[in-house]
């Protein structure tokens, strides 16, 4: 059973000592003037690495999962500490993903879990880095540290990206059959 439940044996929840990369992720979904917008970003402390809009029917939890998966993919073959302020995304990995995988990614009623496609994407993406730490950080704090600076940049980049038109890579996601509503 433990091999079924293990996402990866070296997955950490504390920052790595000297990683190749330190990344920050954010996903957001909000309404403005009656229209729903969603987006995500992956940043370093100072630079936006990737940010884009997502389909408007995506909620914040879906956007957070997508951002975390993209960060893992961008860190392929590298050692990386990835920060997220999302309790949901952070909790999915050590807590829920084990149970969901064991239960075939179905709820107790036999229906697919919410965001099943994104959870699968994240599960696969977690294998891409050589070593990975997913670290929870506090959101919207007034402290001035490298972590709060990177997290604030990811937050700003996400909100700016959300209002942009869908780009071709993310536009393809809109037609994927098991996307969250």
TrEMBL record:
Classification via PROSITE patterns: RNASE_H_1
Name this polypeptide is given: RNase H type-1 domain-containing protein
Domain RNase H type-1: 17-163
Record bears the keyword ATP-binding: no
GO molecular function, one term: RNA-directed DNA polymerase activity
PANTHER family for the chain: ENDOGENOUS RETROVIRUS GROUP K MEMBER POL PROTEIN (PTHR41694), RIBONUCLEASE H (PTHR41694:SF5)
Name of a matching Pfam family: RNase_H
Source organism (scientific name): Chelydra serpentina
Keywords carried by this UniProt record: Endonuclease, Hydrolase, Nuclease, Nucleotidyltransferase, RNA-directed DNA polymerase, Transferase
Residues spanning the membrane: none
